[in-house]
Amino acid sequence: MRDPHVVALFYRLIEGQQITFDSPPPIEDATDEFRVRLADNEVTVEFLSHYSDVPSARRTAEGYLEAWEIKAQLEAGHPVMQFEFVRPEVIDRNPPLPGEPQTLSVGPAE
User: Fold this and answer.
1) Which of 18, 38, 55, 104 has the smallest count of CB within 10 Å of its CB?
2) What is the pTM of this model?
3) Could you tell me the strand order of the sheet in which 81-92 lies?
4) Is residue 110 scored above 60 in pLDDT?
5) Radius of gyration (Cα) for the chain, nearest Å?
6) 81-109 b/e with 16+ CB inside 10 Å = b?
7) Full residue range of the structural domain in which residue 27 is found
8) Is residue 101 part of a domain?
9) Residue 27 class from Cβ within 10 Å (0-12 exposed, 13-18 middle, 19+ buried)?
10) What domain count does the chain have?
11) How confident is the model at residue 80 (pLDDT cuts 50, 70, 90)?
12) Phi and psi dihedrals of 61, rounded to 5?
C-alpha cells in the first residue's frame, strides 16, 4: 500500500461471568479521534483521524475501551466485560492505477 489508512477496528464484547446482556440498545460515543458503536456484542471503532498502521490505531482505541472496562467494573464491583480485537479495516488512500506495477511487502501478521 502506498498510503494506508485504518478506517475502523472491530472488537467482540465478552461478558463477565456474572453478567448477561439481554438485547440492550446500541451504545454510541465519540472522541476527537474516533466514533465507537456497541451493538449486538460487536464494537466498531471508526476513525476520524488518520492512522497509517494498525498498532497505533489499536493503542488509541484500546486505551478508551480499557477505561470503559474499568469504569464498568468499578461501578458493578466485579468484572463486567472485556473487549477482544477481531480485525481491522485498512484502505489504500492512493491505490495504483489499473495496469500500474505494484510492489508488495510482506510482514508479520498481528
Assistant:
1) 104
2) 0.83
3) 27-30, 34-39, 42-47, 4-15, 81-92
4) no
5) 17
6) bbbebeebebeeeeeeeeeeeeeeeeeee
7) 4-91
8) no
9) exposed
10) 1
11) confident
12) -65, -45
Q: pLDDT digit string (tens) for 88-106?
A: 999 988 877 787 766 655 5
Residue with more model confidence, 80 or 10: 10
What does each C-alpha distance from 34 to 23, 50, 75, 90, 94 come to in angstroms? 25, 10, 25, 15, 22
**11 is written with which cell numbers?**
472488537
In one letter, which amino acid is 84? E
Q: Is residue 97 part of a domain?
A: no
Query: Does residue 96 lie in a domain region?
Result: no
> E strands along 1-110, which residues?
4-15, 27-30, 34-39, 42-47, 81-92
| Of 17, 73, 15, 10, nearest in space to 42 by CA | 10
- Residue 50 forms part of a structural domain: yes
